[in-house]
Structure formats: structure tokens, C-alpha cells
Amino acid sequence: MFTKPTPPWITAGALCLAGCAGCINAVGFLGAQHQALSHMSGTVTNLGIELGLADRALAWRAFVVLGSFFLGCVASGLIIRQSTLKLGRRYGVALVLESLLLFAAVWFFHRDATDTGDYLAAMACGLQNAMATGYSGAVIRTTHVSGIITDLGIAVGLFARRQPVDWRRIRLYLVLLVGFLSGGVIGAVAFVRLNYGTLLIPAVITGVVGLGYGTYRHFYPHAWE
């Protein structure tokens, strides 16, 4: 159960980041490689398939995408140094780094280096997903929805059995689901006109939010606490 109310900044941040991840993932699927970038379950499956079929080139590509996501998580741990959301940590730095990775990915995509673009975008998603793994007893993931759908299903089952349901946690998960879905829609619509330039949308959003957050926390270190 949630032990405290969900502050507005967590809800807004969750919606924004989930939307960015949905947009990035849409670009990955619509791109030349049709590669998932924000979640690794399918990538690990692809790696297993290619290893089973002895396709070394595709197996290596899947492995590097997986490794890039992992390195993004490592970078997040090095920057933020904790797994629970707490204002004052260096989220601004992490968001700016994510933005730079996405800008770099667009640069490589526009030069037909699609593999490198995918690697950088996957690293950005790993960095984002590891930024906050928990808050008040809730597991928070902003780059995939498997766990969210699972928890929502469990909640429906508990409600049907007239068991207690943590509605504050469910509302947060619904925000993440809506954000991710909306990001996918935006990514698909934008890809028709902007192609890989669609990644500039989450790149700008994370960059502006990161710089704004870092600046605000510098001048008002005790705000929102």
C-alpha cells in the first residue's frame, strides 16, 4: 500500500517520461530495423532466436541493443545513486544526458547508421527507466507496460473478490499507461512527416525538463519537500 500521497510532480513526471518512451519505442518499431527500444523482453527473445538459427550478425545486433539499454541503467545508477524517488537527486543531469543521447541518435539515423542510432536510443531508454525504480512501495517503470498491465489485472481481481485495492497506486499506473500509449500515437503520427527526426520530440522534452529541474533545484533546494 502507498504510505503517503502522490505529489503532483511525480504524476506529471511519470506522464511525461512514459510519453517520451512510447514515442521512442514507436520510432524503433517504425524504423528500418523494426526494433523495440524501450523494453528488452522482445530483444532477448530475438537474441535467443538468432542464436538458435546461428545468425551471428543479427544475434550480435540484438546483444548490443540489450547491452546499450543495460549501460544506460548503469549510467543512471552512477548519476543518481539511489533507487527510490527523492527530490534533490541529480535527475536533471540524467535527463539532460538522455536528451543528448537522443540527439546523437537522430544524427546517426540521418546518416543511415541505423544500428548506432538504435543503440543510442536504447541507452537513453535504459537511463530513463532506471532513474526511478520505486516510490512509496510502488514499482515505477516508465519505458514499458507489462508490469503495469499485470498490476492492473491483479487489482481488478482483488476488487472482484471484495479485497482491499491500493487505488492511489492504480491511479499512478493508469497515468503511466496513458502516457506510454499517447507517446506511441504521437510517435506514429510524427514519423510519417519527420521520420527519425521524431526523436527530437522526446529529446527536446527531456532536455528542457532536465535543465529546468536542475536550475530550479539549484536556486530552490528545499522546494516541494
Note down, in words, how this protein is organized.
This protein has one domain (12-218): Growth Hormone, Chain: A. The chain is 70% helix and 2% strand. The protein has helices spanning 8-30, 41-52, 56-80, 91-109, 114-129, 146-160, 167-194, 200-219, and strands at residues 134-135, 138-139. Strands 1-2 form a two-stranded antiparallel sheet. Helix 2 (41-52) packs antiparallel against helix 3 (56-80) and helix 4 packs antiparallel against helix 5 (114-129). It is globular. The mean pLDDT is 88.
In short:
With 225 residues, the protein is mostly helical.
CATH fold topology:
Growth Hormone, Chain: A
Low-confidence stretches: none
Name of the CATH class: Mainly Alpha
Shape: globular
What percent strand? under 5%
CATH architectural category: Up-down Bundle
Give the strand line-up of the largest sheet.
Answer: 1-2
Per DSSP E runs of 2 or more residues, the count of β-strands stands at 2
Tally of domains: 1
Radius of gyration, whole Å: 18 Å
Give the helix/strand layout.
Elements: H1 8-30, H2 41-52, H3 56-80, H4 91-109, H5 114-129, E1 134-135, E2 138-139, H6 146-160, H7 167-194, H8 200-219
Antiparallel strand pairs: 1-2
Helix pairs in contact: 1-5, 1-7, 1-8, 2-3, 3-5, 4-5, 4-8, 6-7
Features:
single chain; 225 residues; mainly alpha; Growth Hormone, Chain: A; two-stranded antiparallel sheet; 8 helices; 2 strands; globular
